[in-house]
Amino acid sequence: MISLSDCPKFQSCNAPVCPLDPVWARRFNHKEDSTCFYLSESVKRGSQALFEGAGLEELGEVIHRISPAIATRHSRIQRALERAKQTGSRMARLVKRCQEADHE
């Protein structure tokens, strides 16, 4: 089972609702709060392949499974995820850079 501390952004994240938090449903999301980076990435086209390319398959699986429930419970997060679908993936750029560095 994956835990909060398994997230690569655990030390720097300030999103109050974390898909890895077993009690995420008890958390509040206010107007000024951030949305989990990986939750936002999970709604983008090809996201499962991106999580795999980054070596984060388990994280991706958990987030893909729980994200509909989070979006249903937190309307602000749902709107943020709708906006995220319309933008390019930051994770894709990171994965691409890492792959290019491996080939140099």
From TrEMBL:
This is Uncharacterized protein. It comes from Nitrosospira multiformis.
